[in-house]
TrEMBL record:
The lineage of its organism: Bacteria, Bacillati, Bacillota, Clostridia, Eubacteriales. Belongs to the bacterial sugar transferase family. Keywords: Membrane, Transferase, Transmembrane, Transmembrane helix. Residues 7-187 form the Bacterial sugar transferase domain. One of its GO terms (molecular function) is phosphotransferase activity, for other substituted phosphate groups. Pfam families: Bac_transf (PF02397). This is Undecaprenyl phosphate galactosephosphotransferase. InterPro entries: Bact_transf (IPR003362). The chain crosses the membrane at residues 12-33.
Length: 213
């Protein structure tokens, strides 16, 4: 009952409450992005949703227009502090997690929840083991178990394991703990970037796939 009724009800109520905040942030961010490079305000990434259905996930664009999609050897997204693909505005958005705020729109549309497994790119479906697919039984989240406690410090396999754990143990208490852990993580700026990872080291030691977004 919590997953199918109360969780969704909480999502809708809090999304509506936060909508004025989103609109204020949007007005500020749109000016900053347009002043810097006049490119689009949003980045719409194709992501895996509930039951494996794909959807467009909203984010404030933090990278240059047509920046290549760099992936690490395990398929996870490259996250480096000195990433040359980031715009100046985007670097601030990423550090403060403001780039994630537009996902309120995904919550209202029913694509996402405030708390759930972070949605993977659609090509990750073929990477899942059969036992991993349980994480597709719940709505993906703006934040989740992995995001709150590990963020970018865990590799692709560990992230999936954490998301599977959440999907199997979802409850109001766990969601509450994740919410508070996320606030601490964002305020303290924990694990924003992949640890001990710089551009040159990544290019030398990790296999990257350059796919135009």
């Amino acid at each position: 009952m919590y997953i199918n009724i109360f969780k969704r009800l909480f999502d809708i109520i809090f999304a509506i409450i936060l909508m004025p905040f989103f609109l204020i942030v949007y007005m500020i961010v749109v000016v900053a992005i347009k002043v810097e490079d006049k490119g689009p305000v949003f980045y719409l990434g194709e992501r895996l949703g509930r039951y494996g259905k794909s959807f467009k996930m909203y984010k404030f664009r933090s990278m240059k227009v047509n920046a290549p999609d760099w992936r690490l050897e395990d398929g996870s997204t490259f996250n480096g502090e000195e990433d040359p693909r980031q715009t100046k505005v985007g670097k601030i958005l990423r550090k403060t997690s403001i780039d994630e705020i537009p996902q309120i729109l995904n919550i209202i549309k029913g694509d996402m929840s405030f708390i759930g497994p972070r949605p993977d790119p659609t090509d990750w479906l073929e990477r899942y083991l059969e036992e991993d697919k349980v994480l597709l039984n719940v709505l993906p989240g703006v934040t989740g178990y992995n995001q709150a406690y590990f963020r970018n410090s865990s590799d692709g396999r560990k992230k999936t394991d954490n998301d599977v754990y959440y999907a199997k143990n979802i409850s109001f208490i766990i969601d509450l703990k994740i919410l508070f852990a996320t606030l601490v993580s964002v305020l303290c700026r924990k694990n924003i970037y992949t640890p001990n990872l710089d551009i040159e080291k990544s290019k030398a030691n990790k296999k990257m796939y350059n796919l135009i977004k």
